[in-house]
Specification:
Layout lengths: L1 E6 L3 H12 L4 E7 L2 H10 L4 E4 L8 H8 L5 E5 L4 H10 L3 E4 L4 H12 L11 H5 L9 H4 L3 H11 L5 H8 L3 H15 L4 H10 L7
Parallel strand pairs: 1-2, 1-3, 3-4, 4-5
Length: about 210
Amino acid sequence: MIEVLIADDHTLFAEGVSQALAAIPDLHVAGTASGGMELVEMAKKTRADVLLIDLEMPDLSGFEVLEKLKGSLPAIIVTMHADAHRRSQAVEAGARGFLSKSTPLPELAAAVRAVSAGENLTSLTTTLREILDNYMEPTLDPGAASLTARERELLTLLGEGVSATEELAERLYISPKTVKNHLASIYEKLSISDRTQAAVEAIRLGLVPNR
């Protein structure tokens, strides 16, 4: 799971990006900040793998945030002003990526994965598209990746609010005992302990819409 911190003084944009990324199974938004200074303080206290930073904020600019953090966390500048001059400044300040706010969500998610994996999206030796193509698919943790098709079906139902053993059995045309066996396997693979947590995991894994 990749932990992301977002800094943008446009609340609607920050919340929109946060909700969109939270619906992607291998990404988790650890927090959002409305300014650069708040992000700097948050980065000291919150575990994060990648920062998404706006350029223009009321207290500290994205460039100043990068200078204060001194490369301690990989950062992607996400801005409305994605011109060549600002891109050059971002590269000098240590940004690992420089994207427009109009970047489609799948590409933004791919950029987060790439930067988390150590890629530098500002490199001139490879095109951005070539790098992102390698990171378009979510990378699930081993437990989630090992779920069987039947276990994923069961998780989907739990995420949709079906929790009674008898109803789960009826929906899947299996016995209540088999339902319990599948649940035990799911709990072990996802390191969870009950059906409520399983429902949350179903949403996180994208098996049902995030509500």
